[in-house]
Write a structure and sequence with these properties.
The chain is α+β, with helices and mostly antiparallel strands and 134 residues long. Helices cover 28% and strands 24% of the residues. The strands form 2 sheets. It has a 3-stranded antiparallel β-sheet, with no helix packed on it. A two-stranded antiparallel ribbon has the order 4-5.
Length: 134
Amino acid sequence: MEMIIDFPGGARVDAHFGQYTVFTDQPPMGGGTGSAPTPFAIFLASLGTCAGIYVLGFCQQRGLPTEGIRIIQRMKSNPFSGMVEKVDLEIQVPSTFPEKYRPALIRAAELCAVKKHFENPPKFEIFTQEVEMA
């Protein structure tokens, strides 16, 4: 997969891939206008939404209603480095959700591909390439 990252103005940085564009910005205190989430917020949201896809799929495959189910994601950061050290995903289910499926719901969320990449991060290579400007 290839993404094109461009700089449309101000502190905005956008990613284009396939038919999609992900818009990002910085808050005013970071030099932006706050017109879109920060890249880091999108990164963290991808974790919760990915887990959500697996929870949703688990319920749909078994004909279980998803009404009232939600995931609360909490991050704990190191106060010195500011780095996220722990992510909690709390799957809230209504009292009517079958008890026998609750452990399997957790296992489904643990299949999240974003989480797996946290656990086994890819290698990064960052370099420059000169291109001719038209």
